[in-house]
Amino acid sequence: MGQDLVLNTQIRITDPNLKTKGGDDVIMQTLTMNRDRCLNRKLVDSFFKVLRHNNDDVIRQKLNNTGEKNKKAVNARCKEFVTQDLYPSWDLRLRAIGFCENEASCLKRELDAKHGTESSAQRPILNARMDPYAAAESTAVRESYYQQWRELTRWVDNQRGIEQILQRTAADILARACNPYTSYLADFEKFRKSVQ
């Protein structure tokens, strides 16, 4: 088990009907990542759902939320949305996925050290006549130890795929709505390097 990763993000409410009287339209969300959160991902999935809903799912609405329709105002709104909302959201999700990927690697090493290198001298010799199911049972027990690791690596792979799809889709929308000559994915990589 490694250290915890604390992720903080500001979520801007897009629907003015959700604002409370005298309240601000920005909510601070915090998620503390640890191995348990990676293995029991319900809270992480909820966090991702909120981030995706408030950024990736409403790109067009947020970009159309400008009072003025001139090119300068639209470009300013695009730049503000990308740098303050979209890129930080992508970065947080990728950091969380990377954290869980690292935890999966550590878990695999721990499992291999504990269950993968047992020599036959340490295990009782199984005689098929005494217990015909012992070999299969031994394999099933060993595989059960690796189940959490397999589920976690599958989740990491799925989340990486989802992020790639969302980023490509967002880049296409931004190219149509904002500046078609900007490489938003390359700019995001520059953004990630600047915040590390």
TrEMBL record:
GO cellular component, one term: mitochondrial intermembrane space
InterPro entries: MIX23 (IPR019171), MIX23_fungal (IPR016805)
Family: Belongs to the MIX23 family.
Name of the protein in question: LAME_0E03004g1_1
Organism this protein belongs to: Lachancea meyersii CBS 8951
